[in-house]
Amino acid sequence: MKRTLVGVLLSLIVLGNFSWGEAQVSSTPDYAKVFPQNRLNKITISISKADWDSIKIDMKEKFKTDFGKSPFPRMGPPNGERPNQQGFPPMSQDGKRPEGFPPQRGGDGEMMPQPMGTSEEPRYVACQVEFEGKKWHNIGFRLKGNSSLMSSWGAGVYKMPFRLDFDKYEKSDLYGFHELSMSPAFHDNSLIREKLASDIYRQAGIPTAQTAFYEVYLDYGDGVQYAGVYTMVEVIDDTMIQSQFGSSTGNIYKPESTFQRFREKEFEKKNFKKEKKFQDVQAFVSALNDSSRIKAPALWRTNLEKTFDINHFIKWLAINTAMTNWDTYGAMAHNFYLYNAPNRGLVWIPWDNNEAISTNDKPNFPIPEGMPEPPKNFRMPNRGLSLSLKDCPKHFVLITYIAQDPVYYAKYLKEIAAFRKNDWQATKLTKQIAEYALLIKQAASKEKAPYSHLTNEKSFEEGIQSLQKQIGKRATEIDQFLAEKPSGK
């Protein structure tokens, strides 16, 4: 009997049908397992005390501050839940920072609104990943983000955004996914904006990364601690392009550019990195800024559309503006990808949506000690563009040129109306929000400092209520805007 049992086990191992709890390499992404839509997954990330110490040294070098000892005040949530909102100096409509705030410029003196934080990526360390009873060893782990990371780090909050790279040290994957991004719902007491915005985009026809809710447990060398609800986000250049476009043969970029001019350093390549070929984005930027826009607008549109899927971008712009999102192009020169899709040109892909569906009201913005009082007409953060686009800073030329072109602006208005009719329905969205809230409510209730950005037991419920209120409020604002029959700039 014993020999038979041993023989069976050996056979199973040889055939690859038995696992001792160690991870197996997969070939096809298993979305149902890694990105389920109707359940809350659990994942545990463990790193050694020595590696955590090395992260602290690296972050001190990059941020010039120790963990929990930031000279910057902690930024409060901008989404209407609490009054003590704080942040970094905003921009005026012409792209200039308030007088007294240090300027941030790109090459040639050009205004470049930059995300708060560091331009360098934090270092990778090895971690162990536990998921559904299996363990993955020697997986790459690094912190990520700009203002979200800087604020969390300085405040001593362990619930920080991070990325997992299963191929960093050796070939591996999590059921077909080689890289994964983890969003901690920074600035979002509802904990669901990242997922809700991503789902809204895809439901409206905008290719966007898949997302799923996770209970995350972190061990930084002193034992496992519950870090609350995260949203796992599919990485664009890993699986999303192939899954949603059916091909990944074109260049994938993660730009930080306003598109006023082409600078290679502003167009980070995520694939074909050894090939220093940027002709596709160079052609796009050149066509966008060509003088024919004024002299021969029809020719300008024709040439632009040869390089860039402008109709797709206009649809994204309409949706993004309708639901509000200040942390992307139009306010900040980041949080989007470009994919050169066959027969389409460059296609816009949204990214990092935790600030979406925020209020468009002027928030309370306490000025950090030592900073000068800004003028009254400066551009506040935490506000999306107005529906008319008239307040878009001029240096975000892709939007300002659309607003100035009668043909493109008419398409923009049409897309706003279609989105309001087909997707931005209060009954539908509040039901979707309620389903998400029910799914993560118990997990959210267990969040505790310093592994949470929630400030008290009511924060989550208040965040959900504020989000539901914003859905209806924004619907009314869109209806009023469309009733006015607006014209372009």
Automatic annotation (TrEMBL):
Region (Disordered): 66-118
Domain of life: Bacteria
Keyword vocabulary terms for this entry: Kinase, Signal, Transferase
One matching Pfam family: CotH
InterPro entries given in the database record: Spore_coat_CotH_CotH2/3/7
Endpoints of the signal sequence: 1-23
GO molecular function: kinase activity
Keyword Transferase: yes
Protein name: CotH kinase family protein
Organism of provenance: Flectobacillus rivi
